[in-house]
Amino acid sequence: MLKLKIQYPAPSQTIVSPEWPEGGPVNSSVAGAYDGTPVEQEWQRDIWGFLERLREVSGIIPSGSPDNALISQRYDALKKISRQIWPIWEGDSTETDTYPQGAIVIASDDKTYQSLIAANYGNDPISSPSAWKEFRAVDIIDDLLSTDPDSALSANQGRILKEALDLIPIYGPATETAQGVTFLRKRIIGSNSTADLEHDISTTAGDFKFASGNGSAWAPSFRKSIDAAWAQGSLLGGLAAGVALTPDTTYHYFALSNPAGSVVDFGFDTNLFAANLRLDPNVIAALGSNAEYSRQLSVVTDASSNIRGFYQTEKKFYWKEQALDVFTFGDGTIATLSPLTVPSLIEVNADIIAQVGDGLNPPSVDYWLLITSPDDVDTLPSQNFSTLGFQSNTGDDWSIAMSVKTDAVTQIRWRHTATALRPQANFGHGFRVWTRGWEDFLLED
Question: What is the largest CA-CA distance in the chain?
């Protein structure tokens, strides 16, 4: 964006005032003086660029006719962009759409309505007002507070209010087929890209808060490659400059933005605070030297430096192939810290399956197994405090699915009361831990 006060210095060719801090155009002092702001392509292109950017981002194709007060494609473009998270329903195809009770739509009068009936089919809010009510988000707050005014200021009431606001379904255009429910808080969800399962991450469209707390931005659907240097744009490389792709390594996947939130991108970094990405010359050229960031997920490479396959539901991640991280027949009387196949540098709730079985060697006494977080107090397992227990001379196998918090180097603690478990040669199964996935509870709400 040009600064007119620099392009055409004051006082003659630019006015500088509180209304025009970066300079505003002025007329010539008298006819023929040519001392006013010149009509040049530089600043006209600056204005035209803004209008063209609106059209380009919205995907609207120029009609070839000039806009006017009744028909304006650029107004339509602005409206389309502003409603990416809350899509518009024009109300002109009700014959093909059925809305449940509570569904929120924006009708052809640009007002917001909420369905009052179930299976609301063929009823336009304008022509069938009895099936709809005009909707205001503050209505939800009023309803909540009216149900229990005595506790309206309690912390619990605030939590209920937030959850209610987060769960308002926003339905898409009536001319489109709804594939699911979109929520007010639209989270970015990632997965291995079907285009390149080993190196690419694809993310859905959504909004994200800056880690600095200075704002937020909305990102379209994106795909970046971990095996190529960062370049601006989707379908291109995403690895920060100076960061190598190596086996068995955690890489954090960040949403990036300029401070204004108008230009977004994504990238991979081994640094938890995107330090390498924010120093990458290409990132600086695209987003500025003070780019904002927000970690969206973290991935782990395998022995071939490929991204391990996973899928995501909200803050929970699941390996497509479980990892056997602990397999031992040895002494468990001393606490052992074992790393799991989950992202490092962050603490997570690991989703594991633990199995012990076939008794002691020899199987002459009862024994107990305890799995805890490294943050917990190390405690000797007992009948009253254990994850699993075995009676003497039983030959059984037992397993349990559980969640346990890791430390920043992916470890959990385990111990049992046996100096040795029955060896595998004698059909022993020992002690095993499979990692199924994790909950990344540090991701933004």
Answer: 110
pLDDT at 148: 47
- Residues in CB range of 90: below 8 A, 6 or more apart: 107, 108, 173, 174, 175
Global pTM?
A: 0.59
For residue 303, which amino acid is it?
A
Q: How confident is the model at residue 362 (pLDDT cuts 50, 70, 90)?
A: low
- Give the type of residue at 297: L
Integer distance in angstroms from the first to the last C-alpha of the chain?
A: 34
Give domain 319-439's CATH architecture: Sandwich (2.60)
Place of tokens 């194709």: 61
Token pair of 129 as six digits? 């007002």
* Mean pLDDT, residues 408-422: 90
Instruction: Give the start-to-end residue ranges of the domains of the chain.
Output: 1-39, 40-82, 83-183, 190-310, 319-439
How far apart are alpha carbons 405 and 378 in whole angstroms? Answer: 14
User: pLDDT digits over 382-413, tens only?
Assistant: 988 888 877 666 656 778 999 999 999 999 99
What pairs with residue 223 in β-bridges? 202
Name the nearest CA neighbour of 395 among 433, 361, 419, 369.
361
The answer to whether 300 touches 343, Cβ cutoff 8 Å, is yes
Q: What is the pLDDT of residues 121-148, one digit of tens each?
A: 777 777 777 888 877 655 555 555 554 4
Dihedral angle, C-alpha 155, 160, 163, 164, nearest 10 °: -140
8 Å CB contact between 409 and 324:
no
SS3 123: coil
